[in-house]
Amino acid sequence: MKSTQFRLDELARHVNGQVIGHSDLSISALASLAAADAQSISFVSHEKHLADAQQSHAAALIVTEQLRLRLPQQQNFIVVENPYLAFALLSHVFEHKVLARGIEATAQIAESAIIAEDAYIGHYVVIGEHCVIGSNTIIQAHSTISDGTEIGRDCFIAHHVAFDCAVKVGDRVRIHSNTVIGGEGFGFAPYQAKWHRIAQLGSVRIGHDVRIGSNCSIDRGALDDTILENGVIIDNLVQIAHNVVIGENTAIAAKCGIAGSTKIGKNCILAGGVGVVGHIEIADNVQLTGMSMITKNILQAGTYSSGTSFLETGQWKRAAIRFKQLADVPLTKIVKQLDHMQAQIESLETILKLRK
Amino acid sequence: MKSTQFRLDELARHVNGQVIGHSDLSISALASLAAADAQSISFVSHEKHLADAQQSHAAALIVTEQLRLRLPQQQNFIVVENPYLAFALLSHVFEHKVLARGIEATAQIAESAIIAEDAYIGHYVVIGEHCVIGSNTIIQAHSTISDGTEIGRDCFIAHHVAFDCAVKVGDRVRIHSNTVIGGEGFGFAPYQAKWHRIAQLGSVRIGHDVRIGSNCSIDRGALDDTILENGVIIDNLVQIAHNVVIGENTAIAAKCGIAGSTKIGKNCILAGGVGVVGHIEIADNVQLTGMSMITKNILQAGTYSSGTSFLETGQWKRAAIRFKQLADVPLTKIVKQLDHMQAQIESLETILKLRK
Amino acid sequence: MKSTQFRLDELARHVNGQVIGHSDLSISALASLAAADAQSISFVSHEKHLADAQQSHAAALIVTEQLRLRLPQQQNFIVVENPYLAFALLSHVFEHKVLARGIEATAQIAESAIIAEDAYIGHYVVIGEHCVIGSNTIIQAHSTISDGTEIGRDCFIAHHVAFDCAVKVGDRVRIHSNTVIGGEGFGFAPYQAKWHRIAQLGSVRIGHDVRIGSNCSIDRGALDDTILENGVIIDNLVQIAHNVVIGENTAIAAKCGIAGSTKIGKNCILAGGVGVVGHIEIADNVQLTGMSMITKNILQAGTYSSGTSFLETGQWKRAAIRFKQLADVPLTKIVKQLDHMQAQIESLETILKLRK
């Protein structure tokens, strides 16, 4: 596939940066320091990367003014305040975007659906009755969109995505392949030793600028809706159960699971593999480290963890046996007993000294 | 989408309940106490919801007789013994069901496949040779069904479901979107530092009234079959490895993983994120709390857990370091030593007292 | 479906084994010891299965010479050095393979794509521009293959697989249903309290003889590629984040997650549910037990673990409370204090003895 050429000053304008060196340098790729060649631009976001930067074959580097002064052998720079942000912005310039527009002949669109003229609907997409697809939205091959779903403008829906009920999706939302939105929540009433299914009647509401990775399951609510507020970003293989609410700009890394009716605040960060039990509340600005198991409300901003550090397995087995023993070892009592015994010993010592 | 109207006494008959108030009240929705409006019916399953019930705008409430007496301001009720079960039953009345029947023109059905006349086969469904699809079964768009698969009556198969071998499925089974049934088990023989694939020849047998969520992987057996017995319910993103057997009415919440050849009993409940090692046995009526790691047989009914509680990260780090230290701290010996020292001290005290 | 018949000596040749008994015995299935009938061959890989072997109705058994001598009641054998490997090899003989070749009429193939004549492209497969599909490669129904993807020869791509960027795949690679290869990595630059998406420009490179299960997410790199080296085997529901590198012949069981830029060595084994943090390195020949949480480099071959053993929940709660208390219990100091107090007591005892 052909790649486009950019002048260094064009790219600098894009990130509000200042060119040092040859403004008319021709750049055709954004690359890591190690992989960059004489047509590539790369970036240095931290002084720990200075050694790699000195050895990089990149034609130009995005740096701070301070970092530039420490790279005397390099010649071409875009100087910015935040190189990592500049990299993020430039990544969009070099991205291969889906340019096709219109509806592929093989797509099945219900008559009552309203599709923006400049949307793209891929091969074999199935769109149900009364759906609305906004301007400049891309829906890739094989996605299935149930009756009544409304998707905003400038969205990107990848392959094999299933909207399984009448979902409402905001603008600039990105949903990756094989994710299921609005699947049936796991609701059953136990009665006479059997599970009686509760038909799920709620939906899913997704705000603006939400991002959902691949192979996620975002269930529809039982009665009310499951809600992802504006700016929420979610990685792959994440489970969001029925009636969960995720607050604005919260980030959820891969393999997390949030059980039913739990409410997570704004600007939280859940690292990979975190599990959160149902029917609890997590405050704003909470960070949960990887694989934490959260079983109670967290009402105070801060960072929380669970689990144990990893150990060589032989050592771990000894520690794990002691963990079991802890059930019957009264630790705090031991500490108190120790203090008490220490006092007794000292008292004995004093008595003996006096009687010398 | 239009909604249907029901009279309050119609709904009451549906749940074997008694109307208190206006029998001819017109109801068009089942809603939560908070979201209910003057056309909605809601339910109160526990006295902790009484405050919400008092403030609800619901036209009518499903309650027990005891709860009704504590809601003097509300006027219309359906009185039942088990309001939560009544809610479960009514949810089906208000559900938007797939009403279409027949085979979409874009479906690819092998000649030898037998499809019941009143089944529904959605767009782009692919059905292989010798498959059988039972009466009133719905197969939504894009599902793929391999040769020899037999699906019973009144089943619901959502979008993008893959049956990857000749699977046998009972009646009233529900399988949600993007789930894979009968994928290849993870079987390899190590030999001369390489992994030699074992072709998987078993299948998957799914009983009646089984429910499987979205994005699950239920692998086919190596030689014998993987088995889900009648009434098993499984949430999203669950892994069931080859030759696992899950007993009747066992419930498995999201993100659990059961490794190969493990046998889980009847009426068990696995909370979210539980991992069960391969080749073990779990008795009937076992409950495993969230994210438990089960590494050995459980032969006794009861509730089991593993992991640690979550803590503020600073505190957790101190505890986690101590967990490591436990490997070299002989806890039970310490307890004995303490007792022994206590005895020694007391003996010293006695001696001193005697010599006073 | 009809099954093929094999003579016992044919099967023996296939595994370099020696027939004991009737060479012309007709075998139509490979089965477990318990399920085998008079048309089946089964295998005994360990003396712990001898009792089952004695009771098996199998027509013939694959055994070592030593095991054969302990099965006097059985009459027909294939004797080999490694019965489990022989079983692995024979499993391929009895597998129902996809025999169809060519391109289904409903597949959408871009004009610039190059498809080997003896490949099979299933119904509704979508193949983009400049893709290459090698000889004897099977692509099952509904898979979607983005522009520029190259897949080698003798590969098997199951249903609903999404290649979401220009992925490079070696020979003899197997990828199971509903897996996503080359989905967008989870890369965001935080700036002014919002997440700014980093378009992912790298790809995924998959070596020869790689196996990936169902419902996996293998993300494309941010700038450089995500890499699975030759012989890597991956089970279901696994997350491989952007820029991860997995070394040759490493095995990753179901539900593992590897965070971004982590490099895992050769011949490692990750048991189910392991989580590995980003930007670390794991040496060759490392084994991680189930559900381990790996947060730091592992530079030494060996076996590592984390977590706690499971306990009956009441006992676990007591142990878990003590784990919390450990944060404030100076274990190593206690051990020292105990030793010190013991010395003090003994000194007191000596003094008293002297003064007797």
Automatic annotation (TrEMBL), chains A, B, C:
GO terms for biological process: lipid A biosynthetic process. The active site is at H242. GO terms for cellular component: membrane. It catalyses: a UDP-3-O-[(3R)-3-hydroxyacyl]-alpha-D-glucosamine + a (3R)-hydroxyacyl-[ACP] = a UDP-2-N,3-O-bis[(3R)-3-hydroxyacyl]-alpha-D-glucosamine + holo-[ACP] + H(+). Pathway: Bacterial outer membrane biogenesis; LPS lipid A biosynthesis. One of its GO terms (molecular function) is UDP-3-O-[(3R)-3-hydroxyacyl]-glucosamine N-acyltransferase activity. Keywords: Acyltransferase, Lipid A biosynthesis, Lipid biosynthesis, Lipid metabolism, Repeat, Transferase. Residues 24-92 form the UDP-3-O-[3-hydroxymyristoyl] glucosamine N-acyltransferase non-repeat region domain. Pfam families: GMPPB_C, Hexapep, LpxD. Its EC number is 2.3.1.191. It comes from the Bacteria. Residues 107-183 form the Mannose-1-phosphate guanyltransferase C-terminal domain. SUPFAM superfamilies: Trimeric LpxA-like enzymes (SSF51161). The keyword Lipid biosynthesis applies. Gene3D superfamilies: 1.20.5.170, Hexapeptide repeat proteins (2.160.10.10), MurE/MurF, N-terminal domain (3.40.1390.10). Homotrimer. HAMAP family: LpxD. Belongs to the transferase hexapeptide repeat family. LpxD subfamily. Catalyzes the N-acylation of UDP-3-O-acylglucosamine using 3-hydroxyacyl-ACP as the acyl donor. Is involved in the biosynthesis of lipid A, a phosphorylated glycolipid that anchors the lipopolysaccharide to the outer membrane of the cell. This is UDP-3-O-acylglucosamine N-acyltransferase. The gene is lpxD.
